[in-house]
Amino acid sequence: MRALLKPAAAPGLDLADVPTPQPGEGQVLIKVLRTGICGTDLHIEGWDDWAARSIRTPLVLGHEFVGEVAELGPGVREVKKGDLVSGEGHIVCGNCRNCMAGKRHLCIRTIGLGVHTDGAFAEYVLLPEANVWVHRHEVDPDVAAIFDPFGNAVHTALTFPVLGEDVLITGAGPIGIMAAAVARHAGARHVVITDVSPYRLELARKIGVTVAADVSNTTIERVQRDLGMSEGFDIGLEMSGKPQAMQEMIANMRHGGRIAVLGLPAEEIAVDMATVVTRMLTIKGIYGREMYETWYAMSVLLQGGLDISPLITHRFGYAQHAEAFAAARSGHCGKVVIDWTRATLHSAS
To answer: Binding residues for NAD(+), per the UniProt record (predicted)?
Structure first.
């Protein structure tokens, strides 16, 4: 089968022929239809310090995907051939304390699809049945391909109740914008998102945020005043990983405010603990998706009319992978999707 492979410990990827995996006990072989490019994939493709420490080559990349079930291994009971499926890319041990308690997203032995084991940037991918999410209702394949990052957004946005609340989101990357769409759909009063990218801020406006603020020329405090807010934001969603964003979020929360943090910082962040303590703020880290409560929520939100398709701005065939990765790296994009049923697409948007 054709696969997008990291052949050696160096920058770049190869489109190569590799053996098609065969399903073993409890495993499902999936014919891949679409994949989404994640920031993790960019790290691996560029071979930065994190990738050099974390990745063993050769490796097939990719963990955001949708596909059709092709073959079933012995013992598979619920998944059927022909099912349209996405996959939970965190493969857990099932035996640690958290797994045994039903908190699989906190497994201490998590294996990452496309990071620690061959992934979905290929014509076929293999997953345990427990990691296969069957789409029981009609869904656009492009949207189904980005259920993984959509799940990050849903997990973060719904960690704390947002109905009637004022929500601040720092970081208008694709996950931040999807989180804004979720908060708005779930009944938030004001949804404010900040960034310094005019492209990303305009994309956020298209999904209906109250304010998309360019913090290179305005302040969050000024946005509060313009909206008539007197005490600060109720809920904060930190999606950027930038120290200044976290610091400004803490400074603009109301007393008793709650912050969910998804953004991974590349450097240490100095936190004003005096403000956290005296305002009795709650700060919670978010990683991945709750298995499988978040997945249920994702499907229900889409059934309820939430539309995240505007976030998919670029589409490429699998032979155009270099162009796809360049688009994703440029920042002038939302989600970038690769079509594994066609080598090239005439339109890349």
So the answer is: 175, 195, 200, 262-264, 286-287
